[in-house]
Write a structure and sequence with these properties.
The chain has about 220 residues and is mostly helical. It has a single domain, classed as Serine Threonine Protein Phosphatase 5, Tetratricopeptide repeat (Alpha Horseshoe). The chain is about 60% helix and about 0% strand.
């Protein structure tokens, strides 16, 4: 079963669930606070609404506005803080439809990564960097490059979060929608190296793909 393509400029949450939107809002708050910058009142109010499980659709926040807040935070950062913020910036840029910025931030993240191999989020950075580059390549209709970046993402050494929750599967899903089942099956085999607590999901997803069905990736499409 196929879903409509991502609407890059649609208001956040008009056709989505509250939880993913709140994760995006919380990411922006985290970025701004890490940069020790002033928090926009709308962003603070939206964050409070998330904490109260209120409907954040009332704020009509767009992906573009979320990205602008994160980009401002990243612009004044350096060193370890910048390394931590770059994954947020790369993903926010992609959601906002700014492919050039998404590609630039993802590449910078991967370039910085060798300096932080001892950090607990090093493995997440490798996965996120290549995953964003893959989605950008797919957006530009470069299937061979998107497949290669998917495989590169699976070279991550893992992290506590990846071992527990597994990887974001959005690039894999989008490649499946393009008929790239063999590549995704190979990717899932590689994921076994770092996803030690998959709870049978790798087998279930692989079985669904072999039966020419779209797997239910659940929360692995959101984080």
């Amino acid at each position: 079963m196929r879903l409509p393509a991502l609407a890059m400029v649609a208001p956040l949450l008009l056709n989505a669930q509250v939880e993913p939107a709140c994760r995006e809002i919380k990411s922006a708050l985290h970025a701004v606070e890490m940069a020790r910058a002033a928090v926009d009142p709308d962003l603070r109010a939206a964050g409070a609404a998330c904490d109260a499980s209120a409907d954040v659709r009332l704020f009509h926040l767009t992906h573009q506005r979320i990205f602008a807040w994160i980009e401002q935070a990243v612009s004044g950062s350096n060193g370890r803080d910048r390394f931590a913020l770059l994954p947020l910036a790369a993903k926010a840029a992609f959601r906002a439809g700014d492919m050039e910025a998404a590609q630039s931030y993802a590449r910078e993240l991967l370039q910085m990564a060798p300096t932080y191999t001892k950090e607990p989020d090093y493995g997440d950075a490798i996965y996120d960097g290549y995953s964003v580059l893959g989605r950008v390549a797919l957006h530009r209709e470069n299937l061979p490059l998107a497949r290669q970046y998917l495989m590169n993402a699976a070279t991550t050494p893992g992290s506590p979060a990846l071992s527990r929750n597994g990887p974001n599967m959005m690039l894999a899903r989008e490649l499946l929608e393009k008929g790239q089942a063999p590549a995704v099956l190979q990717f899932l085999v590689l994921c076994r190296e770092f996803w030690k607590q998959d709870g049978g999901r790798i087998n279930a997803w692989s079985d669904a793909i072999r039966q020419h069905e779209m797997p239910d990736f659940g929360a692995n499409l959101d984080y």
